[in-house]
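Researcher: Structure for this, please.
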Amino acid sequence: QIQRAWIYPTQGTMKRLSGEVTLRFEISKEGNLLDLRLINTSGIDVLDINAIKAVKNAAPYYPFPKTISKKKLSILATFVYSAN
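Model: Predicted structure, token format:
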């Protein structure tokens, strides 16, 4: 779901920006986004904001399968932007 919502920003293309953004987010068993935090910045605001928007815009997520008994999952994700 996030991959469909994650689009390289137009500003990044024009300026050939690259970097890595690491986010930690939590999803409830119903698929709701509970928390979202920037862990490591790329140092470039437009890339950081774009990664955050992708996680937010992909919500709500699919509910957990019945085989997962946890009430929420914490996910650590790194978004890699390459100007190539």
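Researcher: Any notable elements?
Model: The chain has a mean pLDDT of 92. The longest strand covers residues 19-28.
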